[in-house]
User: Which sequence fits this backbone?
């Protein structure tokens, strides 16, 4: 009787220990990149309409930028890519803005010193400071602005694009791990239970 209880506690200890080790196994933190290239979009003003326009421009520019940053290894090359695509980005932004107001000006430029607050991306911390950025000015550019990190390409993370797919894959993977481990543990307890009460 006592030996059966001891076996049960040993089994529970091993399972709990294994679960805690998996919970504490986090990927190592990546170092903060020395160089980054950012995006900053200034809306015309703080009205709901112009904030909506800014959001549509934001989504379009972020998605377009991500498509061209996928295989870019350095900030210098990223800068060259954006310099080559400034006119296209401006045209895409204008198409959205002019669908609301054909007279509203849009300006897209690469600026070397643009002020930014602190930004956190998971384990990465981008401290406040002046950074090179792709700047989109809509109209007077006096409304609330939005920004993200273009290189490394993290803008889609801010927008939550792709996160749902990653979460579903993670949930499926965790479910498979539980399914694989559960029968072994259940079988072990069943054996102990049977030995305990059949003795």
Assistant:
């Amino acid at each position: 009787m006592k030996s059966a209880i001891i076996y049960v506690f040993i089994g529970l200890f091993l399972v709990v220990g294994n679960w805690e080790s998996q919970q504490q196994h986090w990927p190592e933190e990546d170092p903060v990149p020395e160089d980054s290239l950012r995006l900053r979009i200034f809306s015309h003003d703080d009205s709901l309409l112009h904030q909506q326009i800014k959001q549509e421009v934001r989504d379009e520019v972020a998605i377009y930028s991500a498509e061209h940053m996928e295989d870019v290894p350095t900030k210098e090359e990223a800068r060259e890519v954006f310099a080559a695509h400034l006119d296209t980005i401006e045209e895409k932004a204008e198409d959205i803005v002019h669908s609301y107001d054909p007279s509203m000006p849009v300006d897209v430029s690469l600026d070397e010193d643009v002020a930014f607050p602190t930004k956190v991306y998971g384990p990465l911390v981008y401290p406040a400071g002046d950074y090179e950025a792709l700047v989109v000015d809509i109209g007077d550019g006096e409304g609330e602005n939005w920004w993200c990190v273009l290189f490394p390409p993290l803008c889609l993370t801010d927008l939550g694009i792709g996160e749902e797919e990653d979460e579903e894959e993670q949930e499926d993977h965790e479910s498979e791990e539980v399914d694989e481990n559960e029968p072994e543990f259940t079988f072990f307890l069943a054996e102990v239970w049977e030995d305990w009460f059949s003795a």
Observations:
- The CA atoms of residues 171 and 177 lie 10 Å apart.
- DSSP finds five helices and six strands in the chain.
